[in-house]
Design brief:
The chain has 11 helices and 11 strands. With about 325 residues, the chain is an alpha/beta fold. The chain folds into 2 domains: about 180 residues, Rossmann fold (3-Layer(aba) Sandwich), CATH 3.40.50; about 110 residues, Rossmann fold (3-Layer(aba) Sandwich), CATH 3.40.50. It has a 7-stranded mixed sheet, with helices on both faces. Strands 7-8-6-9 form a 4-stranded parallel sheet, with helices on both faces. The structure holds adenosine-5'-triphosphate, 6-O-phosphono-beta-D-fructofuranose and magnesium ion. Adenosine-5'-triphosphate (ATP) binds next to α4. Keywords: Allosteric enzyme, ATP-binding, Cytoplasm, Glycolysis, Kinase, Magnesium, Metal-binding, Nucleotide-binding, Transferase. Pathway: Carbohydrate degradation; glycolysis; D-glyceraldehyde 3-phosphate and glycerone phosphate from D-glucose: step 3/4. Its cofactor is Mg(2+). Homotetramer. It catalyses: beta-D-fructose 6-phosphate + ATP = beta-D-fructose 1,6-bisphosphate + ADP + H(+).
């Protein structure tokens, strides 16, 4: 049961802005819809900022009415577009962004994005005094202060759909496949995808991995008559090319692995029901918190309860990976 916050309005905000930033994630649209309609229902004007911080620093705003967010709850991507904006790392540029928001009489900003976007959000409110609330929108699920990020569940299911198909080929041809999933420096996608697809092994940046162990595991699998097909889920990790390097090393050991890099397929598509509900709850809650006078926090969900975590914590604390999932996958495939 999701419980929404019961906070009283405590500000005189008349207009807010909302933007999406970083990699797009399925569920950003339901979040935009929820923010927009929750604010409009309270008589607050809403401005959509196009293309994340790139749009903010040039004042690329569009006023959103209720009809502008109709029929988007089921759509992947983001109607506001997204971007990575290097210039926003410059304090002078953030000062300019603050001035633009003030010129437009924006009383608060809601930033939907990943850890990088929320870092920018913290610096913006800290340096300019504009109230800012963050929402966790990224497929990577690498954000402290929320169990799931908006988009993670859809990415997980998209990856699974693809891997289930790859497994058909792996079984038919008795081959090992290395399947690379996204996640940047974290293995949250890989660990959950790995358990859910019945992977023979999961390789994540958080846990040391030895090629010899992988070769040994493949050899003993064969010796035990478990067949010679299998799926190894590899988190992309911080250095590009890991999966191909592993494949080359395995080939040198006499294996003939197939490689599949799932790539951006994981970022698109209709958000799952879980992501739509999460985005809708967090979107509405972010407006409640903003109007109640909160700033510099991210609204997340832990144990089905809405939480507000200081953005500074989001920047400084790393969400731990559950190593038991990686061990469980290895235990269950035997
Ligand atoms: N240290 C920082 N200072 C100011 N702004 C930042 C900082 N880090 C990131 N940003 C802003 O946030 C944008 C998005 O950051 P980043 O590319 O890390 O993606 P993200 O928000 O973590 O999302 P995802 O990981 O899902 O792609 C950056 O392009 C930049 O505009
Ligand atoms: O689409 P881009 O800019 O290459 O970014 C890819 C990165 O973005 C993400 O999809 C989301 O953060 C990561 O998993 C991946 O490393
Ligand atoms: Mg990120």
């Amino acid at each position: 049961m999701y419980r929404l916050p019961d906070l009283k309005k405590n500000t005189r905000i008349n207009a807010i802005a909302v933007m999406t930033s970083g990699g797009d994630s399925p569920g950003m649209n339901p979040a935009i819809r929820s923010v927009t309609r929750a604010a409009l229902n309270q008589g607050i004007r809403v401005f959509g900022i196009n293309r994340g911080y790139s749009g903010l620093i040039i004042g690329d705003f569009t006023e959103l009415k209720s009809g502008d967010v109709s029929n988007i709850v089921q759509r992947g991507g983001t109607i506001l577009k997204s971007d990575r904006c290097e210039a926003f790392k410059d304090p002078a540029v953030r000062h300019q962004a603050g001035e633009i928001l003030k010129e437009h009489h924006i009383g608060g900003l809601i930033v939907i994005g990943g850890d990088g976007s929320l870092t920018g959000a913290h610096l913006l409110t800290h340096e300019t005094g504009i109230p800012v609330i963050g929402l966790p929108g990224t497929i990577d699920n690498d954000i402290y202060g929320t169990e799931d990020t908006i988009g993670f569940d859809t990415a997980l299911n998209t990856a699974l759909e693809a891997i289930d198909k790859i497994r058909d080929t792996a079984i038919s041809h008795e081959r090992i496949f290395l399947v690379e999933v996204m996640g940047r420096n974290s293995g949250h996608i890989a660990s959950q995808v790995g358990v859910a697809c019945g992977a023979e092994m999961i390789i994540v940046p958080e846990i040391d991995f030895k090629l010899e162990a992988l070769c040994f595991s493949l050899a003993s699998q064969r010796a035990e008559g478990h067949g010679s097909s299998g799926i190894i889920v590899v988190a992309e990790g911080p250095r590009p090319g890991l999966t191909y390097r592993l494949a080359n090393q395995l080939e040198a050991q006499g294996e003939k692995p197939g490689v599949c890099i799932l790539g951006h397929i994981q970022r698109g598509g209709r958000p799952t029901g879980h992501d739509r509900v999460l985005a809708s709850c967090l979107g509405a809650a972010s407006v409640t918190y903003l109007l109640a006078g909160f700033t510099d926090v991210m609204i997340g969900m832990i144990d089905s309860k809405i939480t507000a975590t200081p953005l500074l914590d989001i920047m400084e604390k790393r969400k731990p990976l559950n190593p038991q999932l990686v061990e469980l996958a290895q235990l269950l495939h035997k």
